[in-house]
Design brief:
Layout: H1 2-39, H2 59-66, H3 68-102, H4 105-116, H5 123-133, H6 139-146, H7 159-169, H8 171-183, H9 187-195, H10 200-211, H11 213-228, H12 232-237, H13 245-254, H14 259-284, H15 288-292
Helix pairs in contact: 1-14, 2-14, 3-7, 3-8, 3-11, 5-7, 8-11, 9-10, 11-14, 13-14
Amino acid sequence: MASLYQRFGGGLATIFIALVVLWLAGMVLAPNLMMVDYALRPNLPPAQIGGPNDVYSLDNILYLANESVHRSIFFKTIWASALVAFITFLVCYPIAFWLAQRATMGQAAVAILALTIPFWINEVLRTLAWYIILAFRGPLNALLLNIGVIDAPVRWNGDGGVLAGMVYAYILFMLFPIYNSIESLEKSQIEAARDLGASTWRIHWRVVMPHAKAGIATGCVFTFMLAAGSYVAPALLGAPGSRWFTEIIYNWFFEGGDWNRGAAYALVLLVLCLFVVLATLKIARVNLTDVAK
């Protein structure tokens, strides 16, 4: 705070701080407080709002606890989001290590450019591209049929398609934090471990991963939160039996017309996601300051 005033002066620094406070209050705090207010109030006709029946209660949240189908979809969304984070880590870690420790500057620049260019396209269009790839008569089935891997087309849309689409959609949120962490690791430490007889697996487990734990935790947090709150991938790549919890929230708001119950569902998802994230950071022994970096 003091450095901000020293750099920009009192007037300009005060304007910057006021804009930040206004942004946090108007775009972060106020919507969440409104969501809590909606979640704790009943869904009433306009004429009854503010009347004797308009009281705070936990009925909307308890409805989720008593609705077995919605409850199972809720927990499925949580563990599936964790699975998305884990698969994304498995995909990104070797790439991040190669970029940070093995690739030349030219190779790294080309690889990063190749990874980022597809993300200049809107997420909906990228997900539709996956829909085409995984379609019953799409190129994936055509390729597998031509090389003899399968005898008949397979319906890839469903849980598998949603996982594939999410891993692709959020790969950069895992890749860059891990890459930034591994890049700061001195190559001499890896060489010293190898000289002492450590295997490749042991080098990664005892040297690289502990050094990059802040980046790994950051990537897992970002990926998990984005997957748990995703709507586009489940809506386009899912099947009737692979519903995501965000689809139920969407239905409450825009099809069922019950904003109060939709807000309650969203609040439960937010609270549990925050709990999972904080537990993950605690287990990894990483604080929020490291994630913010």
